[in-house]
Amino acid sequence: MSLHKLDHRRTTVAIVGGGQAGLSTSWFLTRDGVDHVVLEAKTLGHEWRDRRWDNFTLVTPNWHCRLPGYAYDGPEPDGFMGRDEIVAWLSGYAPTFDPPVVEHTAVTRLTEREGGGFVLTTSGPDGEETWEAEHVVLATGGYHLPIVPSWASALDPSITQLQSADYRNDDQLPEGAVLVVGSGQSGAQIAEDLHLAGRQVHLALGDAPRVARFHRGRDCMTWLADMGLYDTPVAQYPGGVAAREKTNHYVTGRDGGRDIDLRQFALEGMRLYGLLDGGRDGALSFRPTLTAALDGADAVYNSICRDIDRHIEAQGIDAPAGAPYEPVWVPESEPTSLDLAAEGVTSVVWAIGYRPDYRWVQVGVFDGTGRPTHTRGVTSVPGLYFLGLPWLHTWGSGRFHGIARDAEHVATAITGAFDRVAAG
């Protein structure tokens, strides 16, 4: 792929972010002949390479990997690509349509231009520059700043602290036990990775749900796709847009895919706790929520399986029998404290999650928590759009599965704006 040499700093559409969301938007604009540029702070798709651990795998089947004009066509559609395979697959996308990309160019400020349109201030190899655009698509995702308790700095400085995005493998951590904080997809899988590497793992659970990897002879996420769950607009889910705040279900694609059963890990020696509540020096405290967290996750697991059972029955599908999950271990008590030194804990991996950081976007499209307000990526400010956010429109929006549909919607909104101007 040749990166276009742009001798001007004015464009019709500026796309901020060169991941799958930004590139998908570029594909539609390229198809429609719309002048645009993709501004990428680092390199195309770098987050898949730089923010995933060595044994990372997709939790969705490979057949979910589809972008506009480009889909997984390898030998294992029902398998789960590892990190390096994902990087290789995604790196093959841009050469198929040669998007106008400017890499190593970070957008540091976005403001509205007097009279309409936007001004983007960038920082790159040539220093600070200014771009002007009639439309801007913000495709930087929603995971910018790691969530860490304010008291984390009060822990013993001899304890190594690491964010989930910076974890690669157990070799990078000092010898000793590891505390993983958070049981969402990253936390549960990192805890598993360390457990399989032979580390003594202590895991502080949140309220993340879980899902079966396989049920009734097929991958659960394939069943859910058939049932239309990834295509249902967020407003149609119970609680409506509140679904955007839900934690994703934990499961793994490792070794061909399997459940993550924290109760089984406990039988094998992993130490489980409820919600981490506080800490100082080497003493941590936990809320007595372990039993509730495990029971809640299992309840969601079985509920999803029952939904699949009903779908199978309603459609008259011939599928092997299934069975609900039965707990293989239950806590004898609720642990509420942990002495790091006494238990030999030498490192902490924070996997609580991330929050968005749009301080550089100086346009009034955010709610009181700093999250963008939009309808399927289209904001109330003419010409400003978001893409690639979890639950932007459907459950599939933050995944490869649904990005093409969202990108096409935003691209159509942009070209429709041209038509309205011409008609006016």
UniProtKB/TrEMBL annotation:
Keywords: Oxidoreductase
InterPro entries attached to this UniProt entry: Auxin_biosynth/cation_transpt (IPR050982), CHP04046_FMN-dependent (IPR024000), FAD/NAD-bd_sf (IPR036188)
Protein name according to UniProt: Putative flavoprotein involved in K+ transport
Source organism of this protein record: Nocardioides lianchengensis
PANTHER family named among the record's database cross-references: FLAVIN-BINDING MONOOXYGENASE-LIKE PROTEIN (AFU_ORTHOLOGUE AFUA_4G09220), FLAVIN-CONTAINING MONOOXYGENASE
GO MF annotation: an example: flavin adenine dinucleotide binding
Pfam families (alphabetical): Pyr_redox_3
